[in-house]
Write a structure and sequence with these properties.
The complex is a heterodimer.
Chain A: E1 7-18, E2 21-32, E3 36-40, H1 47-55, E4 62-67, E5 71-74, H2 86-96, H3 102-112, H4 128-139, E6 146-150, H5 158-173, E7 177-182, H6 185-191, E8 194-199, E9 202-207, H7 209-216, H8 222-232
Parallel strand pairs in A: 3-7, 3-8, 5-6, 6-7
Antiparallel strand pairs in A: 1-2, 1-4, 8-9
Helix pairs in contact in A: 2-3, 2-4, 7-8
Chain B: H1 2-13, H2 16-37, E1 45-50, E2 58-59, E3 64-65, E4 79-83, H3 86-95, E5 100-104, H4 108-114, E6 122-125, H5 130-168, E7 170-174, E8 177-181, H6 184-197, H7 203-233, H8 250-280, H9 283-288, H10 294-323, H11 331-355, H12 359-377, H13 386-398, H14 400-413, H15 419-439
Helix pairs in contact in B: 1-10, 2-8, 2-10, 5-7, 6-7, 8-10, 8-11, 8-12, 8-14, 10-11, 11-12, 11-14, 11-15, 14-15
The chains are: A alpha/beta, B alpha/beta.
Chain lengths: ~240, ~450
């Protein structure tokens, strides 16, 4: 009998308000090693707020976050310097994060993201897809056991999107836990082992995608089940 | 911090337009200031047409008078450009080579000597520029006032000499013939002697008593006349006392202002732009969630602005120094003043950067804030109403511009204390630093 995989990221009762608006209303979750988790929900559901709290960018008003090791963070818009080359961006963040072997880490990430040939190009000259790959690569520089991605495929065309998910799939297969927020429910259906459905700051569902479909007894895809579920929950 | 600093310098190096502007702007300002200073005069250039025939001198009874308006003393107020004709003077004014022209008509001396006619000088000025016209008015009025005082003093001396003759007697030459004037004092003595010889109570003695009383009163009053006439020739004298600030040559002030303006723009734009860039490129969150704290990031932006502004400002000063006389042994004080001013401006720049989300917005905010600050700080006290004066005082205290000008003046030419402005700048750097730190709490 196999031991259950260890929990690498756990949140308990997270609350966050911006003025009078409650962005998160007591959200809890536990993510295990190597898992792929999708956070889905309508606009303003609190997906980005949840991920930024899990990433340590902002503090919750209440609740706790516990992470086993470093947490990598990939924001929705590429957080890279246009006037630096791809290699210089990687080197800068590797130095700032005190990565052991900066040169080796930079070369490894360029190789893994397929950017070796464009390493000397300024980021401002790269395509949106390549910028996003670099964005992900910077989040992975310190080899974190958990990677958080906020709508990673939002600005990509279908071909770039496919390549990104292939890459993230390999990471997950190698043991990295991947938690991502997305608007595209089909991506959650294809690439996530579990989904967290958020609406108006509340966690409405937490489990495998097929369970969500079973909950609403939907015959179609996850997107139909998701819409029906939200309607059922009054959203 | 070193990695971030290298990154910012690399980005600056790869922004040729920005780099060119940041270096060229202060250099162009320095060259303009330098060329202005190289004229070695802080007085307005005025064309002078002296139509009084060569060799003719002015004499109001005290010997030949060297009148300031046509001589070297006029240099106290203007830089005279001697020209021979009124047409040439008009051309120089029109071309902007001189701010105005002063014409001394040929019969000026004769009219002064007549003591009944008043000579009239002519002033040519272009009214296209009201500031220039005002400058000419002030400079020429000061020069003419000086000449009037000279003539009045000479006329007074001549009159005092005549009064002395009336009082004490003496020899006088009129139309080449020498006369002896008895004088009131000796007349009084003669009349007194004659009076004593007359019988008491006689009508003649009573008449002479009246003459004796008159001569005594006249002597007493004429005795005071010298002081009275001197007072009339210069009724009000000026005794200037400096209660605040030190006398600073205009050239020093111009150099200090030029340095302050360039330092302000370069430092504030670099600091605000570098911080705003972190938000524009979405890298702020990525940086501060890692090993870079918000305070470290602010300090790095300040250091980056300092690293950019120091060499540019020093280069600018060196250019100015090639045109103006500077005290090179005070170079360490220049560095101190520039470094402290740059620190205060950098802290102010980080606050502007913390308020803006993009580089363009930060630059726009910086320009719209700094231009009126520089303008208000240069408004002379007393030239505006009490409310505006109070506002300029507050602006001068709250923004580092005025303190920078004071520090640069003190550092460049030992005019005034350097300690006060440096402390002021240090306090502003701390205050702006704290405000920036508070402002970036809302980032992310």
């Amino acid at each position: 009998m196999h031991a259950p995989p260890p929990v690498v990221l756990a949140a308990e009762g997270l609350r966050k308000s911006f003025g009078a608006r409650a962005a998160l209303k007591g959200v809890s979750l536990e993510v295990t090693a190597g898992e792929r988790v999708a956070c889905i929900g309508p606009n303003g559901a609190g997906k980005t707020t949840l991920l930024t709290i899990l990433a340590g960018i902002q503090a919750p008003d209440a609740g706790t976050v516990r992470a086993d090791g470093r947490v990598g963070w990939v924001p929705q818009a590429p957080a890279v310097y246009d006037k630096l080359t791809a290699a210089e961006n990687l080197r800068l963040f590797a130095e700032l994060e005190h990565v052991d072997d900066v040169r080796a880490s930079v070369e490894r990430m360029l190789d893994q993201t397929g950017l070796s040939e464009r390493a000397g190009d300024q980021v401002g000259e790269l395509s949106g897809g390549n910028r996003q790959r670099l964005n992900v690569a910077i989040g992975l520089l310190s080899s974190p056991p958990v990677l958080l991605l906020d709508e990673p495929s939002a600005a990509l065309d279908p071909r770039q999107r496919e390549r990104l998910w292939e890459y993230l799939g390999r990471l997950s297969d190698d043991g990295t836990t991947v938690v991502f927020a997305t608007h595209t429910v089909s991506e959650a259906e294809r690439y996530a082992g579990r989904v967290l459905v958020l609406a108006d700051g509340e966690a409405l569902f937490w489990g495998p995608p097929h369970e969500l479909q079973q909950r609403v007894r939907a015959d179609g895809d996850l997107e139909s089940a998701f819409v029906a579920f939200l309607r059922e929950q009054g959203h | 911090m070193r990695s971030l600093l290298v990154k910012d310098l690399r980005i600056l190096w790869r922004s040729p337009l920005l780099l060119a502007l940041l270096v060229l702007y202060p250099l162009v300002v320095a060259l303009l200031i330098g060329l202005t200073l190289s004229r070695e005069s802080d007085k307005p250039r005025v064309a002078l047409v002296n139509e009084v025939p060569r060799g003719q001198s002015l004499d109001v009874g005290t010997g030949p008078l060297r009148l300031g308006i046509s001589g070297d003393q006029v240099r106290d107020h203007i830089e005279p450009v001697q020209v021979s004709t009124r047409e040439e003077a008009e051309r120089l004014v029109r071309d902007g080579d001189v701010v105005g022209a002063l014409i001394i008509p040929e019969d000026t001396f004769r009219q002064i000597e007549s003591r009944v006619e008043q000579p009239q000088l002519e002033v040519i000025v272009s009214e296209e520029d009201p500031v220039k016209a005002r400058l000419v008015d002030d400079a020429i009025a000061a020069a003419v006032s000086e000449a009037n005082r000279q003539v009045a003093r000479a006329l007074t001396q001549a009159n005092v000499r005549y009064l002395d003759l009336l009082l004490n007697g003496g020899n006088v030459t009129v139309f080449g013939e020498r006369f002896n004037v008895l004088g009131l004092r000796r007349i009084g003595e003669s009349v007194e002697a004659a009076r004593r010889r007359l019988p008491r109570g006689s009508r003649e003695r009573r008449d002479l008593d009246r003459v004796v009383r008159f001569t005594r009163i006249a002597q007493a009053n004429f005795g005071l006349s010298s002081q009275v006439l001197t007072a009339l020739s210069e009724p009000i004298r000026v005794d200037k006392q400096v209660v605040s600030g030190a006398r600073v040559p205009l050239t020093t002030f111009a150099a200090a202002v030029a340095v302050a303006v360039s330092l302000m723009f370069v430092t504030v734009l670099l600091a605000s732009g570098a911080l705003a860039l972190e938000r524009e490129q979405n890298t702020f969150d990525r940086l501060v969630r890692g090993p870079v704290s918000r305070t470290t990031l602010l300090a790095e932006k300040g250091l980056f602005a300092l690293a950019g502004a120091l060499p540019v400002t020093l280069l600018m000063l060196l250019v100015v120094a090639t045109f103006a006389t500077v005290e090179w042994d005070r170079f360490h004080l220049w560095l101190l003043a520039i470094a402290m001013a740059a620190t205060a401006f950098a802290a102010m720049g980080t606050l502007i950067g913390a308020l803006a989300r993009e580089v363009q917005a930060a630059s726009l905010l910086a320009f719209t804030l700094l231009l009126p600050v520089a303008f208000l700080a240069l408004v002379p006290s007393g030239a505006v109403g009490p409310l505006v004066h109070d506002i300029t005082e507050v602006v001068s205290f709250v923004f580092p511009f005025d303190a920078t000008v004071d520090a640069m003046r003190a550092a460049l030419y030992s005019s005034g204390s350097l300690g006060g402005p440096l402390l002021h700048l240090a306090a502003l750097a701390v205050a702006y630093g704290l405000a920036s730190r508070l402002a970036i709490r809302r980032f992310g």
